[in-house]
């Protein structure tokens, strides 16, 4: 998925702060409303990056959307766009999406399946609701920042049609990345990380084991959810900090949430538009390359063409007039 804001926020440089005691026990991160693909397109709720906190482990971007009735509509229509220095994690609760990319991948993603795209040095992809699609579209899109040792690797795509899970008395935990109580995802990760989908029955409560050395957050996808006894609105994220060995989730009606966590990311990084780099120069070079290459017939491309997409690629927004400046990992 692309960050398609016309005027995206300036990059942030995120780093670990050793002053753990300065972190709140919990912090509610409210989302902002963003159009996906233009002012007439579907809208998403963006919880990360947030004004207050910009990362949870290596997770650096979190959008949620729906459930949206797209009967008689195009649904999700995101043209080819580039990425560097990150992985994309798509998760559907309802609906389906065509994924196509510049390494030749083409697959129809359905609920419970995991498409994991590693941008590395550079990749381009598109995401579309198919012409014959379900009436509802409902899910989340997440990014994971790659560490220095991995951020220039060759682009890749992997697809997992089934994932390990725990059936609970009043819900279910499906593991997208990492390990939850012995259920280990097959997805490739480059930093110590966990990601899981948590479903809670109506009126139910579930307890999810956590790794105490990780920081964690829970993204609410449905109304009526409580996390650690805190009410979390749809699209908001409750940051839980570090040192917990479990977290409880409750639901008034049948609910959906995403658990995100990992070791605090130990490197400074720069985020702007669809790029994760380490400097202004990283971002400027990637943008210039995309603008030169997209919709061209160049044989040797950093990002490559997305075969099968009928239409122009997404142009990059203009860089700010001022040099992109570093910001802290979270707002103080």
Topology:
Blueprint: E1 27-29, E2 32-35, E3 43-48, E4 59-69, E5 77-83, E6 86-94, E7 97-101, E8 106-109, E9 114-118, E10 123-128, E11 136-145, E12 156-160, E13 165-168, E14 171-177, E15 179-180, E16 183-184, E17 193-200, E18 205-209, E19 215-220, E20 225-227, E21 230-232, E22 237-242, E23 246-251, E24 255-262, E25 270-272, E26 275-277, H1 280-293
Antiparallel strand pairs: 1-22, 2-3, 3-4, 4-11, 5-10, 6-9, 6-11, 7-8, 7-10, 9-12, 13-14, 14-17, 15-16, 17-24, 18-23, 19-22, 19-24, 20-21, 20-23, 25-26
Order of helices and strands: EEEEEEEEEEEEEEEEEEEEEEEEEEH
The DSSP helix count reads 1
CATH topology: Jelly Rolls
For the secondary structure, the number of strands is: 26
Q: Please, what is the average pLDDT?
A: 91
Query: What is the 3D form?
Result: globular
Overall CATH architecture: Sandwich
The CATH superfamily is Jelly Rolls
Strand order of the largest sheet: 1-22-19-24-17-14-13
The share of residues in helices is under 10%
> Beta fraction of the residues?
35-45%
Question: Biggest sheet, open or closed, and with what strands and sense?
Answer: 7 strands, antiparallel
The structural class is mainly beta
Low-confidence stretches: 10-22
CATH C-level label: Mainly Beta
Keywords: Iron, Metal-binding
Pfam families: Pirin, Pirin_C
Family: Belongs to the pirin family.
Cofactor: Fe cation
